Prior knowledge:
Blueprint (H helix, E strand, L loop, with lengths): L1 H54 L3 H4 L8 E2 L7 E2 H15 E15 L2 E14 L4 E16 L2 E4 L5
Antiparallel strand pairs: 1-2, 3-4, 4-5, 5-6
Amino acid sequence: xxxxxxxxxxxxxxFHLQNKVIAQTLTKDQNKTEMKTTEQSAIEQLLYSxxxxxxxSDVSKxxxxxxxxxVFMPTNAPTAxxxxxxxxxxxxxxxxxxxxxxxxIEEIAVTGDYAYAVTNSKGTALIHANGQTVSEENREFFxxxxxxxxxxxxxxxx
Length: 158
């Protein structure tokens, strides 16, 4: 009778341990999902802040959204690298046009301190030179890097 009791005890113990391991694995997976969701939410907020800064034509709101070595490639202007060039490039763009756009986020992927987003934007652009308002529509690919605990728009060559 003792052999059956010991065997039953061992089976129950193994069953308990197996359930505990499964529960710990599920908790770890849930924590990873919650962390990823939190990171993705932070990147969404960054994109919306970028949209708001563009719509306001506010260079002072755009620059803090970039890493110190950020890159911006505006149409009909040279590529800007780093904060000083970014400032000059955005000043040029905002003197040329006033945009009013909305971002539509298609995908955000996070891996450690790096992430990317695929978006499209639609809206209008007022061309200051002639006062004409035209349709504005683009697809964008953003690269992000966590810098001092904050997500920033980063250069593609990270």
